[in-house]
UniProtKB/TrEMBL annotation:
Annotated organism of origin: Paraglaciecola agarilytica NO2
Location(s) in or outside the cell: Cell inner membrane
Recorded topology in the membrane: Lipid-anchor
Residue stretches making up the Multidrug resistance protein MdtA-like alpha-helical hairpin domain: 50-119
Every Multidrug resistance protein MdtA-like barrel-sandwich hybrid domain range: 10-151
Gene coding for it: acrA
Stretches assigned to the Multidrug resistance protein MdtA-like C-terminal permuted SH3 domain: 247-307
Residues covered by the Multidrug resistance protein MdtA-like beta-barrel domain: 156-241
Similarity-based family: Belongs to the membrane fusion protein (MFP) (TC 8.A.1) family.
Superkingdom: Bacteria
Protein name in UniProt: Membrane fusion protein
InterPro entries according to UniProt: MdtA-like_b-barrel (IPR058626), MdtA-like_BSH (IPR058625), MdtA-like_C (IPR058627), MdtA-like_HH (IPR058624), RND_pump_MFP (IPR006143)
Length: 346
């Protein structure tokens, strides 16, 4: 299946207050930790706002103390009718307003301190940070549309694949058959240059809905990426063992031939060392082998090399070979005399 590499976490860095960028504190392309300061916005006006909010709070605290004392005096005098009820009520109301002012000015001070802290633009996640879109001296605004930079977590990293809903239905029908077992969650990766990624991934999830526009379902695998070889946006090929057929027959591709009409056949060597031509059905290619649907049985001796020297009915002396992962045939045993053919077991 075709797949596309996706960062496991992505976060765009945006300012939460406006101002002039005073300093950039990271190197583009480097790894940053969550909480690292990336940009410093000019803090002078925000520090002044904190100072003003603190002064207002101090003034309100002084007014509260005065209002509290007056409220207590009037309450005492009211017992001896030294003041009117209205004056006592007004003094108590003034005290309550002074208490409310304290809460209001404390909230204003906290807001000013938060805005001052926001002049330090920090990394929301850990990962590799990309190119900065601004330089010192640039004017930025709160929650602007253009991100200052983007951070991506590359280890672990995801690979998103798509499989048609038809294939998923066929797989479920296949798994319902006897002798077919569910495969593993291991995922192999073939890179753009044809090389195989050395680390296996794990299939993590399958989307719960079919894309109406493509008729496909997205699958996501997770891979370790310690060297940073996999980058977001790369297109790769993946291999997943969805199901295991314990009776499946795989044969080397060079052991299957095609007639002028396009029909597939194989040369099978019988117990009398005679060559027989047998029609076969191939289902799909698996690396450098064919998955056989019909025509061959387990234990058949298949002619894989030397077909130009023989015809159906020919007597042959065989050399047993095994196929390596790279497709090379390696001799296992040798017999001399007569026509010689390379044969492998099915």
């Amino acid at each position: 299946m075709q797949g596309r590499v996706v960062a496991s976490l992505t976060a765009e860095v945006r300012p939460q207050v406006g101002g002039v960028v005073h300093e950039r504190l990271f190197t583009e392309g480097n790894y940053v930790e969550q909480g690292d300061v990336l940009y410093q916005i000019e803090p002078a006006t925000f520090q002044a706002a904190v100072n003003e909010a603190q002064a207002n709070l101090n003034s309100a605290e002084a007014s509260l103390e005065t209002a509290k004392l007056k409220d207590q005096r009037f309450a005492d005098l009211l017992e001896f009718e030294g003041v009117s009820q209205q004056d006592a009520d007004d003094a108590h109301a003034t005290y309550l307003e002074a208490k409310a002012d304290i809460e209001r000015f404390e909230a204003a001070l906290e807001t000013a301190r938060i805005n001052l802290e926001f002049t330090k633009v920090t990394a929301p996640i850990s990962g590799q940070i990309g190119i900065s879109t601004v330089t010192p001296g640039a004017l930025v605004t709160a929650s602007q549309a253009t991100a200052l930079s983007t951070i991506r977590t590359l280890d672990p990293i995801f690979v998103d694949m798509t499989k048609s809903s038809t294939e998923i239905l066929k797989l479920r029908q296949l798994l319902a058959k006897s002798g077919i077992k569910k495969g593993s969650t291991d995922v192999s990766l073939i890179l753009e240059d044809g090389s195989e990624y050395e680390l296996k991934g794990q299939l993590k999830m399958q989307e719960v809905a079919v894309d109406a526009s493509t008729g496909a379902v997205t699958l996501r695998a997770e891979f370790a990426n310690p060297e940073g070889l996999l980058l977001p946006g790369m297109f790769v090929r993946t291999q997943i063992n969805d199901a295991v057929d314990e009776n499946a027959i795989l044969v080397p591709q060079q052991g299957i031939y095609h007639s002028a009409a396009g029909d597939a056949y194989a040369y099978v060597i019988d117990e009398n060392n005679k060559v027989q031509s047998r029609g076969v059905t191939t289902l799909s290619a698996v690396d450098n082998q064919w998955l056989i649907g019909s025509g061959l049985n387990a234990g058949d001796k298949l002619l894989v090399e030397g077909s130009s020297k023989v015809r159906p009915g020919s007597d042959v002396k065989t050399v047993e070979v095994e196929m390596q992962n790279n497709g090379e045939m390696v001799r296992v045993d040798q017999q001399s005399g007569g026509n010689t053919a390379m044969q492998g077991g099915v």
